[in-house]
Automatic annotation (TrEMBL):
UniProt superkingdom: Bacteria
Record's protein name: VOC family protein
Entry-linked PROSITE patterns: VOC
Location of the VOC domain: 11-135
InterPro entries in the cross-refs: Glyas_Bleomycin-R_OHBP_Dase, Glyas_Fos-R_dOase_dom, VOC_core
Pfam families assigned: Glyoxalase (PF00903)
Organism: Oerskovia merdavium
Length: 151
């Protein structure tokens, strides 16, 4: 058995989003949400890309029942497309206000979840539905499934 110098085979999760209005999306995610720009590149034919640092990345896989349950908790009805992006923030209420002022459409205001976070749902540029969430209790289960098992 050979040892790997890096125990994690995947070093970065990068979500690539096509944005028809590239400038509006860049302004929203970089300047309004505050994701630092790591790099930007342009190419022939007007090609442009910016790489924004979104902090630690995770991939959350949910079955349809879980997706429906999260929609019910956060919004009160089924609204999420198959892909929704979630950002952990330090103040959900303030960030939600800033994002709406910066061009997002509020889908549902901040709500306390059964897994002890404060979540708000928004429609952001580039056709992304996003959740901003604030962990309220560091001792609480970190996922909806954990909350179900401990209740």
């Amino acid at each position: 058995m050979t040892e790997r110098p890096d125990p994690a085979p995947v070093r970065q999760l990068r979500l690539v989003v096509e944005a028809e209005d590239y400038e509006a999306a860049l302004t929203f995610f970089r300047d309004v949400l505050g994701l630092p720009q790591e790099a930007a590149y342009s190419g022939t034919g007007g090609a442009q890309v910016a790489i924004l640092d979104a902090g630690r990345a995770t991939l959350e896989l949910a079955n349809p029942a879980q997706k429906r349950m999260i929609d019910d908790v956060e919004v009160g009805r089924q609204v999420a497309p198959p892909l929704r992006v979630a950002f952990e923030v330090s103040d959900t209420a303030a960030v939600t206000t800033d994002l709406v002022a910066g061009g997002a459409r509020l889908v549902a205001p901040p709500v306390r979840t059964p897994w002890s976070s404060l979540n708000a749902r928004l429609e952001a540029p580039a056709g992304l539905q996003i959740t901003v969430f604030q962990e309220l209790d560091p001792e609480a289960p970190r996922s909806p499934g954990d909350a179900d098992r401990t209740a």
